Amino acid sequence: MKKVRSQSFLGGAAILAAAGIVSKVFGAVYRIPLARLIGPEGMGLYGMAYPLYTMILALSTAGIPVAISKLVAEKLACGRPD
User: Which domain holds residue 23?
Assistant: First the structure.
C-alpha cells in the first residue's frame, strides 16, 4: 500500500511540475506578440495593472471551490442530489 501511495504521489508531483513548466512557457511566449502589438508604453501600463489584476482574481476565486464542495456535500447529506 505504501508503495502505491508513493508512486501516486510522485506521479502527481511530476504532472504538477510539467504543468507549471508549460504554464511558464506559454506565459513567456504570449508576451512577445503582445509587446510588439502594444509597444513599450503599453507594456509599462500592462506591467503596472497585472499585479493588481492577479491579486483581485486570487481574492475573488479563493473561496469558490470550497463553497461549491460544501454546498454539494450538504445537498448529498440531506438526500437531495439535485
Answer: 2-77
pLDDT for position 12: 87
Domain count, the chain: 1
Helices (H), 1-82: 2-61, 64-77
Q: How far apart are CA 79 and CA 74, in angstroms?
A: 9
- Whether residue 36 lies inside any domain: the answer is yes
Q: Is the residue at 82 inside a domain?
A: no
User: Nearest-5° angle of CA 23, CA 33, CA 46?
Assistant: 75
Instruction: Name the pTM for this structure.
Output: 0.54
CA dist., res. 49 & res. 70, Å (int): 33
Residue 62 has a pLDDT of: 85
**Within a 10 A sphere around the Cβ of 35, how many other Cβ atoms?**
13
